Amino acid sequence: MRAHQIMSRRVVTIRPEAPIADAVKAMLAHHISGLPVVDVAGKLVGILCESDFLRRSEIGTEHLRNRLLTMLIGADRIAGEFVKEHGRQVEQVMTRQPVSVNEQAPLSEVADLMERRHLNHVPVMRGERIVGIITRSDFLSAVAGPLTNSSGYSKDDNQVRRSVLAALARTPWQPVGLNVGVKDGTVTLRGVIGGENARRAVTVACENVPGVRGVDDRLCLQSSQPDPEDDYGGGDFVSLQWEPSAVDDEPL
Q1: What number of other Cβ atoms are within 10 A of residue 105's Cβ?
Q2: Residue 12 pLDDT > 50, yes or no?
């Protein structure tokens, strides 16, 4: 997927010379936490975020620096803090040169950027013009689509079993002597697994196979012994590297 496929297209913007009070009203009225700032030509020059209001004189949260700290930090930085915490115009408070992405940017690139730079908002550009904005909630909506619209259970049990085996064969934490049975979309797993993380990973891998309704985990940890009365029924023993051919199975 690409940036333009999940971005919010209705972008509320504000001018840099606008009063801070107007910016606050706009953010509250539109229920947004990031407000792009554009100049008279429509060029993106900054962004105003909720975090820009954490330190403000109106609520008594501005930095209070003594003389020693002022000397250590530097007068110029202290002056910059004062402008941001007391400024009355958007341009005095906004974050300048905001990080942005092109509308054709791969979604993986956007996610990496937001994660690496700890960003909650990324303006989406077409040339120098802003055409959208991506927030973390847009990723949530994008994930919800495939999860809620999954066609799910159209495959029969034999097809599901083959898909599960194929999915597990590609994993670096392959269970030993894996036995897979599928009935009515529920996958039953037996065998020996290396640890709890590997056990959870096997379950997740199965749950992501289309057609799987649930997972019945009967795997044994490597340090423990299987229950003597468990005959490991419900399917044919297979190796994840090779599986005996059968009418309903194919070699991996």
Answers
A1: 18
A2: yes
Q: Each residue of 85-126: pLDDT tens digit?
A: 999 999 999 999 899 999 999 999 999 999 999 999 999 999
- Whole-structure pTM value: 0.59
Report whether pLDDT(232) > 70: no
pLDDT of 43 higher than 50: yes
Convert the pLDDT of each residue in 121-157 to its tens digit.
Answer: 999 999 989 999 999 988 988 887 666 555 444 458 8
> Closest by alpha carbon to 37, among 135, 136, 133, 137?
133
Phi, psi of 32 (to 5 degrees): -120, 150
Q: How far apart are CA 52 and CA 118, in angstroms?
A: 14
- Label the pairing between strands 101-102 and 129-135: unpaired
Q: Which two tokens stand for residue 22?
A: 């107007």
Q: Write out the chain in H/E/C secondary structure.
A: CEHHHHCECCCCCECCCCEHHHHHHHHHHCCCCEEEEECCCCEEEEEEEHHHHCCCHHHCCCCCCCHHHHHHHCHHHHHHHHHHHHCCEHHHHCEECCCCEECCCEHHHHHHHHHHHCCCEEEEEECCEEEEEEEHHHHHHHHHHHHHCCCCCCCCHHHHHHHHHHHHHCCCCCCEEEEEEEECCEEEEEEEECCHHHHHHHHHHHHCCCCCCEEEEEEEECCCCCCCCCCCCCCCECCCCCCCCECCECCC
Instruction: Determine the distance from the C-alpha atom of residue 184 to the mean position of all C-alpha atoms in its chain, rounded to a whole number.
Output: 32
Compute the chain's Rg from CA coordinates.
28
Token pair of 122 as six digits: 């990324």
With cut-offs at 50, 70 and 90, classify the pLDDT of residue 9: confident
